[in-house]
Design brief:
The chain is an all-beta fold. The protein has no helices and eleven strands. Strands 2, 4, 5, 6, 9, 10 and 11 form a seven-stranded mixed beta sheet that branches. Strands 1-3-8-7 form a four-stranded antiparallel beta sheet, with no helix packed on it.
């Protein structure tokens, strides 16, 4: 059973920083793209950033220059360094990954999500 476990959320003042981590565990043969999404109060879930296996990154316009995504393939972990945080960054942040794992006795690619971690930016 594959699991994605996030950590690092919390309460921070505007202008502050947080670092989110997401570690994959379970019967994993490979991991392709990894990324972060967020869902603010009364908003739809939106893309924050993604990273490929060889380190190519993509960011939402709203976080460019403030957030940095990275990954450690050996540790099966993706990170999101968030700087210059704003109140509008307040949301539940979800980790996402495309993982090659065994399902019902067969190896296949699947799309997996973490449980989410709350980030609140407020003074």
């Amino acid at each position: 059973q594959v699991q994605l476990v996030e950590s690092g959320g919390g309460l921070v003042q505007p202008g502050g920083s947080l670092r989110l981590s997401c570690a994959a565990s379970g019967s994993i043969l490979g991991i392709n793209d990894m990324g972060w999404y967020r869902q603010g109060p009364e908003k739809q879930r939106e893309l924050v950033s993604t990273i490929t296996t060889d380190g190519n990154t993509n960011y939402a316009d709203s976080v460019k220059g403030r957030f940095t995504i990275s990954r450690d393939n050996a540790k099966k972990t993706v990170y999101l360094q968030m700087n210059s945080l704003r109140p509008e960054d307040t949301a539940v942040y979800y980790c996402n990954a495309a993982i090659f794992t065994k399902v019902d006795g067969r190896w296949r690619w699947g799309d997996y999500w973490g449980q989410g971690t709350q980030v609140t930016v407020s003074s």
